[in-house]
């Protein structure tokens, strides 16, 4: 058999068989991209457009069109469709990343002005709005406490609800009703959750504003997200593992606790952390229920507290240069806080995930 | 302590669908009984009724009696969890717990049932792994994840896990169908050793395997697709494969249908 291979021409290039065709060089997409960007800038300058968005969109359009035209000419129409699909994917990727990077860039560049150790360890006690100075400590403390309490309420309830839905519900009417209402709850606007707690806890039961009241509203917002993500993760656990455990004579509750949940723990942690990230940025219920203060109030169960999104909102509303600088710095703290939580969650997920190595 | 299984008038359902109809048979202790028959004839379903795993399937329901020595598995007040501790099971696809190490996998049954002494655990794990002919291959990496083993090793790990809780009966649902011939041979040798201590029931599609490993063979069949499966005959393996008393068995074994 080997001599058949040896008889083949060493270079296929000179002979144009039915299986080979002209190909664009590997660097051509990059070259077309550079050309389109130049074209976009040129068109923008020539037409005198002020908006850089127009420049970018023109470049993107040029990129797709030129790719199509060049490939059709050189490689044929089927390859052209393939290249156009690839270039569309790239354009969409860039479109998605640009706002993200620009947001991160603006927050970091503006936030770093006043962000320092003093800012992180001092409250706004005795600082006038127009004055520079002051800090975010009271708001950071409030956010950590409120989000912590909300997670303590919502995570166990959400987790157990998901366990019920997947392991015990079996498509019963109760399970279907729960699923339906969880879906409805996912869509609750945060202000409605805030108003609900305001009406029951503060107005009917007569409690004053407190971090705990805010945490309850945040828990309402968090719960459906936890249920949903945990449910999906539990459904991914193969049934064979449950059967293997049950066949060893292990009771169902221990099977769930020791086999099903550990197998899914990575995904469940990620889901909970995403829910935490979602509620950390909530302003509306905090505004209604936690009320905001300039002072450090470490007790979440009594008296007004502050929180990071509320602090950003208040400082930005003041509008003086010093206050706006504080707002940006607090926004940066908020983003960093959520990012650290996410990194921790990823670490836990990787550490706990089922291992496949030898 | 191997036990005798005595099944009488057993039917199993999935919701309204009757999967197996009125099966009666006796499985002798310390022997290997093989179930053969075409796909969908209810072999696996019947096997799963023997340790009450059938009812884990939504809609699964059983009528009839399964006597384990002198106790009816389907009697009132019988705890299915206790039944499954007595009647262990090995599945078609190797399914070690992915979060656990090799050691923890074997120890899982004891640990999660809560009835063990810490000092004995290592001994039991070693004994079970030796019993499953896996000890020499894994003794240096007991703390590595079980899912890192090869398919055949994983299946032997599952067998070790099943025998670690010292069941009286071991049910095997096509334990070799996902394995290569060499792993299959290893498991067949193992079955030969295990029958000294356990009552073994094995479902297989491989008739040579049934002929090799089993003392008695049961042939299941179904009249048509959608009809419940029935036990056609149960006899000594030699007789089934040389001179079966029912024509359908001979047809199936000689490959004239199915």
Walk me through this protein's architecture.
The complex is a heterodimer of chains A (358) and B (258). Chain A has 358 residues and is mainly alpha-helical. Chain A has two domains: 21-109, no CATH class; 137-352, MetI-like (MetI-like fold). Chain A has 14 helices and no strands. In chain A, helix 4 (77-111) packs across helix 14 (321-352), helix 6 crosses helix 13 (308-318) and helix 13 (308-318) runs antiparallel to helix 14 (321-352). The longest helix of chain A has 35 residues, at 77-111. The radius of gyration of chain A is 28 Å and the shape is flat. The two termini of chain A are 38 Å apart. Chain B has 258 residues and is an alpha/beta fold. Helices cover 36% and strands 26% of the residues of chain B. Chain B contains ten helices and ten strands. Chain B has a six-stranded mixed beta sheet, sandwiched between helices. In chain B, strands 2-1-4-5 form a four-stranded antiparallel beta sheet, with helices on one face. The chains are: A mainly alpha (358), B alpha/beta (258). Chain A binds chain B through residues 170-171, 238, 240-251, 254-255, 258-259, 262-263, 265, 352, 354-358, and chain B through 51, 53, 56, 58, 81-86, 88-89, 91, 93, 95, 97-99, 108-109, 112-113, 141, 144-145, 147-149, 158, 161-162, 165.
């Amino acid at each position: 058999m080997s001599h058949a291979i040896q008889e083949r021409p060493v270079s296929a290039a000179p002979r144009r068989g039915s299986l080979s065709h002209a190909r664009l060089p590997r660097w051509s997409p990059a070259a077309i991209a550079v050309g389109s960007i130049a074209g976009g800038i040129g068109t923008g300058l020539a037409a005198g457009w002020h908006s850089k968005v127009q420049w970018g969109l023109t470049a993107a359009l040029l990129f797709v069109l030129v790719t199509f035209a060049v490939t059709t000419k050189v490689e044929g129409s089927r390859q052209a469709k393939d290249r156009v699909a690839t270039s569309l994917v790239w354009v969409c990727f860039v479109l998605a990343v640009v706002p993200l990077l620009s947001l991160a860039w603006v927050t970091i560049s503006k936030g770093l002005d006043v962000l320092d150790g003093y800012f992180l360890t001092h409250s706004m006690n005795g600082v006038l709005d127009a004055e520079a100075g002051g800090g975010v400590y009271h708001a950071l403390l409030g956010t950590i406490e409120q989000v912590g309490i909300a997670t303590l309420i919502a995570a166990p309830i959400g987790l157990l609800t998901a366990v019920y839905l997947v392991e015990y519900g079996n498509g019963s009417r109760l399970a279907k009703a729960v699923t339906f209402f969880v879906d409805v709850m996912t869509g609750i606007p945060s202000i409605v959750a805030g108003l609900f707690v305001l009406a029951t806890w503060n107005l009917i039961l007569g409690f004053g504003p407190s971090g705990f009241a805010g945490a309850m509203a945040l828990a309402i917002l968090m719960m459906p997200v936890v249920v949903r993500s945990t449910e999906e993760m539990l459904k991914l656990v193969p049934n064979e593992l449950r059967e293997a455990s049950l066949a060893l004579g292990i009771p169902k509750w221990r099977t769930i606790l020791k086999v099903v949940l550990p197998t899914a723990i990575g995904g469940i942690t990620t889901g909970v952390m995403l829910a935490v990230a979602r509620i950390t940025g909530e302003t509306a219920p905090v505004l209604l229920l936690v009320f905001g203060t300039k002072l450090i109030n470490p007790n979440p169960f009594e008296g007004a507290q502050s929180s990071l999104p509320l602090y950003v909102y208040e400082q930005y509303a003041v509008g003086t240069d010093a206050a706006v600088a504080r707002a940006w710095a607090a926004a940066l703290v908020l983003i960093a806080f959520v990012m650290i939580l996410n990194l921790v969650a990823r670490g836990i997920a990787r550490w706990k995930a089922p291992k496949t190595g030898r | 302590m191997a036990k005798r299984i005595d099944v009488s008038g057993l039917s199993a359902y999935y919701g309204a669908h009757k999967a197996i109809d009125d099966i009666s048979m006796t499985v002798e202790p310390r022997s290997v009984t093989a179930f053969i028959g075409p796909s969908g004839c209810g072999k696996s379903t019947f096997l799963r009724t023997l340790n009450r795993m059938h009812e884990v399937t939504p809609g699964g329901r059983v009528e009839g009696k399964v006597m384990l020595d002198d106790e009816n598995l389907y009697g009132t007040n019988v705890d299915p969890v206790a039944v499954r501790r007595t009647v262990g099971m090995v599945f078609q696809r190797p399914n070690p717990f992915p979060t656990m190490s090799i050691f923890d996998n074997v120890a899982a049954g004891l640990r999660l049932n809560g009835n063990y002494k810490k000092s004995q655990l290592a001994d039991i794990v070693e004994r079970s792994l030796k019993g499953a002919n896996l000890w020499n291959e894994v003794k240096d990496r007991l703390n590595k994840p079980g899912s890192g083993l090869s398919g055949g090793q994983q299946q032997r790990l599952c067998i070790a896990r099943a025998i670690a809780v010292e069941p009286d009966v071991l049910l095997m649902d096509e334990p070799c169908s996902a394995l290569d011939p060499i792993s299959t041979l290893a498991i067949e040798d193992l079955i030969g050793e295990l029958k000294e201590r356990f009552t073994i029931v094995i479902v297989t599609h491989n008739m040579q395997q049934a002929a090799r490993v089993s003392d008695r063979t049961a042939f299941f069949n179904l009249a048509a697709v959608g009809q419940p499966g029935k036990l056609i005959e149960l006899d000594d393996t030699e007789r089934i494969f040389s001179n079966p008393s029912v024509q359908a068995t001979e047809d199936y074994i000689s490959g004239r249908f199915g």
